[in-house]
Amino acid sequence: MARQATAEKRQRRERGSINPEDIIKGAFELAEEVGIDNLSMPLLGKHLGVGVTSIYWYFRKKDDLLNAMTDRALRQYVFATPYVEASDWRETLRNHARTMRKTFLGNPILCDLILIRSALSPRAAKIGVKEVEKAIAGLVEAGLSPEDAFDTYSAVSLHVRGSVVLQRLREKNEAANEGPRDLEDTMNIDPETTPLLAAVTQKGHHIGAADERNFEYGLECILDHAERLIEQNKAKTRKRSAKR
């Protein structure tokens, strides 16, 4: 079962002593205890020691509060995952993907707000776009066309987000103890009828699981494809130069 709300009672604040920053900060504190799904305005009021009407004065509904939390989470995420140039484009993109995944897996609240809920204000969304532009510019400089650079970064981003969301959903299913945790739990692998599957899974490989092995394999496949595209572009450039 998911953890039930257990906010401690606090000394009641004076009327008008709460502000939006206090509310958002308190919402994050409470979400760490009970999760985003169980966060409610009445429970937050108890956590902050104010009447729920004091919260509704600034945030008319829960979605408004979650939007504000998501905007702040995105700023925290961008700060935690800067696109730091390494010695070559492949190392840079690989490190960036690993950092993104590590940041989300290490903070379930960030994952729930940014990836699963993903409702951003125009201002917050603009922050993320600048980071993407920087990444794509680096790939173009490495030798990809703008289109291939865009598709490469998009593929890496989707791969990271997909693996994190699948892992997060597995954790939620485990906590709730409701049904299979992931695809592999629904499969009946019989050594007699599916010997290849049985042999490989016995060695620690998993089907449809967002584990480290699957993540790294998929990431290297994307990077390999990008490297082939760069080499193709270099070959075309050499041919054009030879004809002159």
Overall description:
There is one protein chain. By secondary structure, this protein is mainly α. It has a domain at 61-180 and 189-232: Tetracycline Repressor, domain 2 (Orthogonal Bundle), CATH 1.10.357. Helix content is 68%, strand content 0%. The chain has helices at residues 20-34, 41-48, 52-56, 62-80, 89-106, 108-117, 122-142, 146-176, 195-202, 212-243. Helix 1 packs across helix 2 (41-48) and helix 8 (146-176) packs antiparallel against helix 10. The termini are far apart.
Task: Describe the structure concisely for a colleague.
This protein is mostly helical and 244 residues long. Helix content is 68%, strand content 0%. The protein has a domain at 61-180 and 189-232: Tetracycline Repressor, domain 2 (Orthogonal Bundle), CATH 1.10.357.10.
Q: Which sequence of SSEs, written as H and E, runs from N to C?
A: HHHHHHHHHH
Give the class from helix and strand content and strand pairing: mainly alpha
Helicity range: 55-70%
Low-confidence stretches: 1-9
If helices are DSSP runs of H or I spanning 4 or more residues, what is the number of helices? 10
What is the highest CATH level, the class of the domain at 61-180 and 189-232?
A: Mainly Alpha
CATH architecture of the domain at 61-180 and 189-232, please? Orthogonal Bundle
What is the subunit organization of this protein? single chain
Main sheet overview? none
Fourth-level CATH superfamily of the domain at 61-180 and 189-232: Tetracycline Repressor, domain 2
Distance between the termini: 71 Å
Protein name: Bacterial regulatory s, tetR family protein
GO molecular function: DNA-binding transcription factor activity; transcription cis-regulatory region binding
Organism: Mycolicibacterium hassiacum (strain DSM 44199 / CIP 105218 / JCM 12690 / 3849) (Mycobacterium hassiacum)
Keywords: DNA-binding, Transcription, Transcription regulation
